[in-house]
Amino acid sequence: MSQQPGRIMAGEMAEQPAVLRRILQEGAPRIREVAAAIAARSPRFVLLTARGTSDNAALYAKYLLEIQLGLPCGLTSMSTTTAYGARPDLTDVLVITVSQSGGSPDLVASTKAAREAGAITLAVTNNPDSPLAAVSEFHIDILAGPEKALPATKTYTASLLALYLFVEGLRGGDGAAAKVLPDLATQVLSRQDEVRQLASRYRFAERMVITSRGYGYPTAKEAALKLMETSYIPALAYSGADLLHGPLAMVDNISPVIAVVTDGKGGQALQPVLDRLRGRGADLVVVGPSSQVEAASAGFALPTDGVPEDLQPILEILPLQRLAYEVTIARGQDPDAPRALAKVTETS
User: Looking at the 3D structure of the chain, how many domains does it have?
Assistant: First the structure.
């Protein structure tokens, strides 16, 4: 008997409230300890290193570090080290490498080179016994448990929460605002029928555009990645500001657009973009607070009341993970096993 398509991905999506709770209860003390040790070293700059889904988690950390701590951050181009042999002076630079498996050779090599160049190195992984953890000075275990479906779901939200708690620790915060997340995640994940109804809009889509600003931008990028790797729909993620600088021309009244609207300054900055999209007659769906969803043709209202803007991405991605799953099932494909993909991608 063949296995039901998507069974593994669905199960792992459903685990996310328990994973978030585990991090808050079991992982938080260790994260605070690591953050205190690194804060004592007073890093002057942060470099974030990752691939794929973890790259989107790293982008979220970039927003946190720059907004909450005023620390300048950059996203690493690993080929400068692994292919070109560059050896920059990384004295007093914090290099954070985010990886679910901790096994990709280029991540390991670039982190090892960074440490040799004087960097403070931190690995954030789901595998404390990984090669990446071994070459890093510090390690944070995201405690997501084994993830078998090829599309990453629970390791993404676990990485976001671990990075949030780490940044909170760097600035002396206790991360108490995150305690509401497990229960809210359970509420969001229980609304599968709403997402399934939204998915019917995209069964025959030839392309999609996903946009956001601020803390929501990593969510847009991760949602696009999930849609592409599961349903094979070309999904283009743009910052709202970048969308206005040219790509808006491809949006018309049959172009599906998903806007991730955070309840806060990022959502406010996105408003002119939403107005332009409505003016072009775009098929606009909003994921965000209920007030924004009511003003759109369709959407998914998130329970954002009382949730700080910097924590909302952990909730925002949940219906979009489910959307990718439902669209894939509707198109007769198996989201557990996208073609041409492996769970551990080995790049060098």
Answer: 2
Q: Is 343 a catalytic residue?
A: yes
Q: How far apart are CA 315 and CA 186, in angstroms?
A: 10
Answer yes or no: is 337 within a domain. Answer: no
- Structural domain contains residue 85: yes
The string of pLDDT tens digits covering residues 56-91 is: 999 999 999 999 999 999 988 877 877 788 788 999
**Coil vs helix vs strand at 123:** strand
Q: How far apart are CA 104 and CA 100, in angstroms?
A: 10
Tokens of 78: 């690993």
Give per-residue pLDDT as tens, 220-273: 999 999 999 999 999 989 888 877 776 665 666 667 889 999 999 999 999 998
- Given 112, 148, 179, 343, the catalytic residue: 343
Tell whether 176 and 218 lie within a shared domain: no
pLDDT at 243: 79
**Does 161 share its domain with 197?**
no
Judge residue 224's burial from the number of C-beta atoms within 10 Å of its C-beta, 0-12 exposed, 13-18 middle, 19 or more buried: buried
Q: State mean pLDDT over 199-213.
A: 90
Q: Do 24 and 60 fall into the same domain? A: yes
Instruction: Looking at the structure, tell me whether residues 165 and 227 fall in a common domain.
Output: no
Of the three residues 151, 181, 211, the one that is the final residue of a domain is: 181
Tens digit of each residue's pLDDT (9 = 90 or more) over 305-338: 999 999 999 999 999 999 999 999 999 999 998 7
Give dist(CA 62, CA 75) in Å, integer: 8
Burial classification of residue 190, based on how many CB atoms lie within 10 Å of its CB (0-12 exposed, 13-18 middle, 19 or more buried): exposed
Residue where a domain terminates, one of 149, 181, 213 = 181
Asked if residue 340 belongs to a domain, the reply is no
Residues 13 and 146 in one domain: yes
Structure tokens that stand for 28 in this block? 């938080």
